[in-house]
Hints:
28% strand, rod-shaped, alpha+beta
Amino acid sequence: MGKNKLSQNRLGRVSEQQAEFFLKNYYHDRGMLKWQGFFLSDHTTALTKNKQTETPIYRKQQSLTSITSLLIISWQKNQALKIQLNRIDTDQNVEEYQGVVHGFNEKYVFLGNSQGILKLDIAEIRNCYID
């Protein structure tokens, strides 16, 4: 009978006092880190996107002349600018794009950014500014 108790103890059974001592002195709880594996990749992507994107400030309507002059500056100096459109996205925020002007004509502006080259209608531009 004594041999049975000894073999059970070798199989990992510990007393409450031993467990309490271990938890107090040796165990390091990682907190929320251990739960990060339960997030789906879609959730993680959405959380990252929310951290990276700022809500754009609703800017006043500019004249076509001032919009055109800022587009020319961005194009000539290869300088990034932000373009705000007269459209609202699904989150009820005004649509805003950032990039460098690769070219434009009387109808469209071609804005290059990390997503590629965007073709934006100049008539839909509300405001643009250089950061």
